Amino acid sequence: MTLEESRPLVPNANRLLYAGFMAIFAAGIGFAIRGGILDNWGREYGFTGAQLGVIGGAGFTGFCFGIIIGGVIADLIGYGKLVIAAFLLHVLSAVVTFGGGLEGQSQDVTYNFLFWGTFLFAVANGTLEAVANPLVATIFPNNRTHYLNILHASWPAGLVVGGAAGWILDDQYAMPWKYQLALFLIPTVIYGLMFLGQKMPKSEASEKGLSLGEMLTDIGMLGGLVACGLLGLFFISVLEPLFSSNPQVARYIGYGIGGAMLIAIAVLTRFSIGAWLIFVLFVTHALVGAVELGTDGWIQNITGNLFSSQEGKVLFVYTSMVMFVLRFCAHFIEKKIGLSPIGLLFVCAVLGCVGLNLTAAATTFAAAMVALTVYAVGKTFFWPTMLAVVSDRFPRTGAVAISIMGGIGMMSAGLLGSPGLGYFKDRYAGESLNKADAALYAEYKSDKPSQFLFFPEATGIDGKKFGEVQGALEELKKTNPAATPADLPDAQRIVLESSIQGDRDTLVADSAIPATMAVIYLLLLIYFKAIGGYRPVHLAGSTAEKSTDQDEVIPAHPA
């Protein structure tokens, strides 16, 4: 790295970088622990896979509100106020979540506490990323891919710590889930202290005095269509329970809200169509959120079912450690190996697709370790590199585009990735059990059918009954550590094997997402090669401007 590439714009750059690191680290710990206690919630409260998927999905959809709203107002009110808001929301999320599961509480009440506690936690996480992402992109303008990957190394670091804590506290000591989840409050206090009293710079766009409408011009109606469409789906999912007798009303309201927001963007941008590249990047990042975060939210549960709960957590911690280490290597890959950010994303998409299929076929812990290594390498660079690309190519958008992109990824994970995987787990497990033994299926099937988008209604295995089967296997392993599902009575064996087959089929279906992404990245590689290669863009007269042949310089204000 040259001196010019490594030189930050402000003297407290490292303090700000690692304060952001600690904030996302807190989010990763909370996310990992929540993923590890999904099975606890299923056993204790009888939730279906689809219900757990919706609760897990709230951990993404709430993020979208935090990061999009935060990104829009960041340059108006300053990053400091957003950090304070995020800190208070993190504390409130813990209070609300801990209100669930109290003695004598109905399942519906518990569900609402867990859903809204998770949602508030995600709003806090999104608000923090509305600060951290544009902040790091601003203070390290000449090597954004490298430093954004360092910032987001905190996410897998949090997954490692949270996953390891869950393994020890849950599997070894059977500690109540509330004590486990409270651990995320420790790094929350630390990041609050690290941000305290720090002066923060403005983005390139804010530095040049661009208005919100000018920042949104490159996003335009095309980019707004992606964000507003997902927001419409979110409001539909929230309102449908309120209009259960006439769900069509919820759809009209949801799409109406999304449409009104799109009209607002059109007016603010003077009906700008927007850049087609931003539209493509936004759509692709929706796929990133679905496959990376949606899968992360379920992977402990899936691998824990394929092997054992303890082995599932070990594999989760291991893959997160792989991500943590590799995110410090983005600069080496880009500068020494010569892969552009788009080239890196293409390779990652191919590896992600291969890794998910290998994991679906793994029958031993060693084979799963190899398969998940391939998958972990694939998903490592998706999120931060996508943020770097939109920040590199569209500096006029300031904190707005990078925040909307993050919100799209999280909203997609919450609305599509997590509920979608929950639905397919229910569907494939139910189909497998029905095929193996229709009478057993009738006995073990859930009372609540699962639904997802336009896919047919499916009925999975009841969470509590399946928990009893898993408990029987765990009891058997206490006297015979080598016990497998084959050692259970026939009925329990068939139920467990059907669930395992359902999880394998779910991973194969999931692999279609990175396959689609690989095609998109390949087309973008061809496009950038046709225009002379990938180059960062800077605003004329900004402190980030570089007078080199490698970078492009454009006027600060759109024509």
Structure, explained:
This protein is an all-alpha fold. It has a single domain, classed as Up-down Bundle (Growth Hormone, Chain: A). 75% of the residues lie in helices and 2% in strands. The strands form 2 sheets. A two-stranded antiparallel sheet has the order 1-2. A two-stranded parallel ribbon has the order 3-4. Helix 8 (154-172) runs antiparallel to helix 16 (309-326), helix 18 packs antiparallel against helix 20 (382-393) and helix 20 (382-393) packs antiparallel against helix 21 (398-436).
Q: In the CATH classification, which architecture applies?
A: Up-down Bundle
Mean pLDDT over the residues: 85
Number of domains: 1
- What is the CATH top level name? Mainly Alpha
Helix content: over 70%
- Terminal CA distance reads 35 Å
- Give the low-confidence spans: 1-5
Order of helices and strands: HHHHHHHHHHHHHHHHHHHHHHEEHHHEE
CATH topology name, in short, is: Growth Hormone, Chain: A
Q: Count of helical segments?
A: 25
Question: What is the molecular shape?
Answer: globular
CATH superfamily: MFS general substrate transporter like domains
The main sheet orders its strands as: 1-2
Radius of gyration: 23 Å
Q: Strand portion, in percent?
A: under 5%
Find the structural class using helix and strand composition.
Answer: mainly alpha
List how many beta strands DSSP finds.
4
Largest sheet: 2 strands, antiparallel
